[in-house]
Amino acid sequence: MLPQRMKKAIADNPKKLANLIDLVNLPSTLREFVGQSQISHLGCFMRVWSYIKDKNLQDPNNKNMINCDEKLKSILLGKPRVDLVELPALIKLHFPKMPK
């Protein structure tokens, strides 16, 4: 069951939700990281987050910072450290712009 505010957000802007869950053809760098040729924005973010957790890449002193290994750097513009808040925007850069 979805929270009330999420239901309202979906009802107010269904196109925004569609952009998160629609499958998109991935560019080569992201395709190699994810291991699929098509994935949604949300699915891609979940794969990256799962990778970060599996490899224990969160900074132990500051859980909001991610210490990137070489594979993660390849999709996050070569940055050695990324703030957790930046992560969705950096992943979104790989996806093509959706027409309005």
From TrEMBL:
Domain DM2, residue spans: 19-97
Top-level taxon: Eukaryota
Protein name: DM2 domain-containing protein
Organism of derivation: Trapa natans (Water chestnut)
Organism classification: Eukaryota, Viridiplantae, Streptophyta, Embryophyta, Tracheophyta
